[in-house]
Amino acid sequence: GDEVWLTQWMPTIELSVRFIEDLYNPSLQLVSAPGPLWIDVFIRANYTTDTNAFFVHVLNEMSEAETFLGNHDIALYYAELAHNITQGINNHLWNGNNYI
After folding, report:
1. Rg of the chain over CA atoms, in angstroms?
2. CA 66, CA 55: separation in Å to the nearest integer?
3. Which of 13, 16, 76, 91 has its CA 20 to 30 A from that of 65?
4. Is the pTM of this model over 0.90?
5. Paired sense of beta strands 24-25 and 43-44, if any
6. CB–CB of 44/93 below 8 Å?
7. How far apart are CA 36 and CA 18, in angstroms?
8. Per-residue pLDDT tens for 29-88?
9. What is the largest CA-CA distance in the chain?
């Protein structure tokens, strides 16, 4: 990896993540997407499988990047948030046969 590039751009990347993180509902463990943030959105009371699944991926990538930069507390935070959202997806967006 390019540590210099990542160090330079991480503050901007973190702002982008915070934008979506501000839509996180901790009681449901889901991100509310009031509009289609990603293509082919199936909206269920503003909670979408694709937006939440994509954000889990982003958070896992952020966790790896922060670990690479030596920011272990932030990396752990992102990993835990990704885990929580995964639980929310499974608890609220799974209908027994597929994700909605």
Report:
1. 14
2. 16
3. 91
4. no
5. unpaired
6. yes
7. 18
8. 999 877 655 544 555 677 888 889 999 999 999 999 999 999 999 999 999 999 999 999
9. 46
